[in-house]
TrEMBL record:
Membrane-crossing segments per the record: 45-70, 82-101, 107-128, 153-172, 178-200
Species of provenance: Neomoorella stamsii
KW Transcription (keyword) present: no
Keyword Ion transport: no
EC code(s) of this entry: 3.4.-.-
One biological process term in Gene Ontology: proteolysis
Stored SMART domains: AgrB (SM00793)
Stated name of the protein: AgrB-like protein
GO molecular function annotation: peptidase activity
Length: 221
């Protein structure tokens, strides 16, 4: 089985070797890391869009994806231990959040903004207590950087509230899309907490047992 890591390493070695002699060539590992991130993100986006289109959940899933991805950049959170498990778990999560968003929009109706304000307030508290949530693989040691990320989380939440409020009162892009963004923020806030770390860790372990692809992928590196 061809892995993204193997493809990125091979492509990086080829690209660096093709550079003219005498130039300050970048390290293969650095180029490979950038390629691996780009390839992984592209594959995830293609998979998300394809599944969302097939299920008829494109606006809702994209709203959930944008909300989770942008907030996660600042707030951090738990990670899966392998790319393919991250892809599967993220895809299942987005489908669930989009479906819940449609259901929530139909239940709340004109009271959607009550839920938005409540989630915003709860998210501020979680950000104050937990953000940015680092991991052993990506610790945040610098206190100045930690403080800046926390402030950025506050600003992101205020911006999110403004965008969702404006969308609600303008009637665009639709209540189910806004509700999906709301559910995504709930999930991402939960992912910053110790119970969130535990739940994702258990899901990661379950997928590892159900789909033991690690050794096969490692063999292609």
């Amino acid at each position: 089985m061809l892995s993204i890591h193997y493809l990125a390493q091979s492509s990086a070695a080829y690209l660096v070797a093709r550079l003219p002699e005498g130039q300050n060539k970048p390290q293969v590992e650095v180029v490979a890391f950038g390629l691996e991130v780009a390839l992984g993100a592209s594959l995830q986006l293609i998979a998300f869009v394809a599944v969302a289109w097939y299920l008829g959940l494109l606006p809702e899933m994209m709203a959930a994806l944008i909300t989770m991805a942008t907030y996660r950049l600042l707030a951090g959170g738990v990670h899966c231990s392998a790319y393919y498990r991250c892809l599967i778990l993220s895809l299942l999560t987005l489908v669930l959040l989009a479906s819940l968003g449609r259901w929530l929009a139909s239940i709340l109706g004109g009271s959607l903004m009550v839920g938005v304000v409540a989630v915003f307030a709860a998210s501020l508290v979680i950000a104050w207590r937990r953000a940015p949530a680092d991991t052993a693989a990506a610790p945040i040691i610098n206190p100045v950087r930690r403080a800046r990320l926390k402030k950025a989380c506050y600003l992101w939440l205020v911006l999110w509230l403004a965008v969702v409020s404006l969308g609600y009162y303008l009637g665009w892009p639709g209540s189910s899309t806004l509700a999906s963004s709301l559910m995504a923020l709930v999930f991402q806030g939960f992912a910053l907490t110790p119970p969130g770390f535990a739940v994702v860790g258990r899901a990661d372990g379950l997928l590892k047992r159900l789909l033991p692809l690690d050794k096969k992928l490692e063999g292609r590196r």
